[in-house]
Amino acid sequence: MSRQFFCLSVLTLALSACSSVDSKHAQGDFDYAKKQESKEFIVPDSLDKPATQREFAIPNDVNHQGPIGSKVDIRAPSLVLPIAASSRVISESDQAIIWFDKVLEDENLLTFIKGSLISQLTSDDVSYEEVEVTSDSDLKGIAETLDSKWYHNEVETGWLFTDIESSTSMRFRYEFFLKPHGRSVSLKVSLIDYMKTDNEGGTKNIDPIDKQRAEMAMLNEVVAQVDYNYRLQQRENRLMRANQKLVTVGENKAAESAYVVEMSLDNLWDNMPIFFEKHGFTISDLDETKKIYFVDFTKPDIGIWDSIWGDEQPVIDVSDAKYQFVLDPLDDKNQKTSVSIYDANGEPLTLDTLERIFPVIEAGLSFRNFY
């Protein structure tokens, strides 16, 4: 026998042994399942009977039809994983159901969750159909239902020549329930059709544990898709805010040249110290009633190492002096605030100066890359 043929034979045996391992059922000795119950201990009438403990007694009315020995399913129980933001499960529930609470205020919650489900079905290359809306008296909300088409899964065996060992097909139902206030939506997944074909034949019956595991696995796939869509939407929102023009050159209420910031007066006032710290300003005094910051400006020194490593901060090209930053709301809705800059003599900076330093001021008052 050649060495190559021997190695090939050993590899084939190893693969055969691995494929025969059953991770669903226990392996080993199950002599306990064949044991007969011992006869009751008989005590002569002339002797006292010893005390008996019934704590661990097994009554005869237990379910004797359940699995025994190697037929016991040893897999860990399936759980619904609430990994998406503001998702929660019903405690002690064996159903594949999860609740989502509103996260994105500018999105319809039911539409968002339903869209995530459709995205998951599309990525799985499985079509779906709408089912007539039903009502649920317990949840007292509107409901929508979708049924998926068939999910197909085939298990192949063999190395050089493959053969289909088993084929499993499943269809699921997805039920949405929206609370009347519109801020909470539940999603329930149910297995509605099942077919399996293997060497032993075909069946439409599925073990209850396998059914529950299939439902929860499918629900977890949808929850993961919801989480992904949340992260995608948050990224788009961050990019939109980063690219949004929050600061422009305009005028204050006195028709003086000033910066106009798309931010409420209170929010901008609270964040101005961050702007000052990053750009060489030191707050010497403030008037919170009139919304005035009195600051001293010293142009920051840029060291050679800052230039090499790219750590230098953008510099505002104005003279080292004292300045006043005056904030004032520009509209009744308090969505725009003017920022007027005055020198030590109380004169507003000219329009040419505001436009020259605008690139640095615009990024600073937009608070980009600060958090």
Describe the structure in your own words.
This protein is of the alpha+beta class and 371 residues long. The protein folds into two domains: 75-239, no CATH class; 247-365, TATA-Binding Protein. Helix content is 27%, strand content 26%.
What is the share of helical residues?
Answer: 25-40%
Detail the poorly predicted runs.
1-20, 304-311
Order of helices and strands: HEEHEEEEEEHEEHEEHEEHH
Mean pLDDT: 81
C-alpha geometry: elongated
Tell me the number of structural domains: 2
For the CA atoms, what is the radius of gyration?
36 Å
How much of the polypeptide forms β-strand, as a percent range? 25-35%
Structural class: alpha+beta
Total count of strands: 14
Distance between the termini: 71 Å
Biggest sheet descriptor? 8 strands, antiparallel
Number of helices: 7
Defining traits:
TATA-Binding Protein, 2 domains, six-stranded antiparallel beta sheet, 26% strand
Give a topology summary.
Layout: H1 3-19, E1 87-88, E2 97-101, H2 109-123, E3 128-131, E4 142-148, E5 151-157, E6 163-178, E7 184-198, E8 201-203, H3 208-243, E9 247-251, E10 257-261, H4 265-278, E11 281-287, E12 292-297, H5 304-309, E13 322-329, E14 337-342, H6 351-356, H7 358-365
Antiparallel strand pairs: 1-2, 2-7, 3-4, 4-6, 5-6, 6-7, 7-8, 9-10, 10-14, 11-12, 12-13, 13-14
Helix pairs in contact: 2-3
What's the gist of this structure?
The protein is α+β, with helices and mostly antiparallel strands. The chain has helices spanning 3-19, 109-123, 208-243, 265-278, 304-309, 351-356, 358-365, and strands at 87-88, 97-101, 128-131, 142-148, 151-157, 163-178, 184-198, 201-203, 247-251, 257-261, 281-287, 292-297, 322-329, 337-342. Strand 13 and strand 14 (337-342) form a beta hairpin.
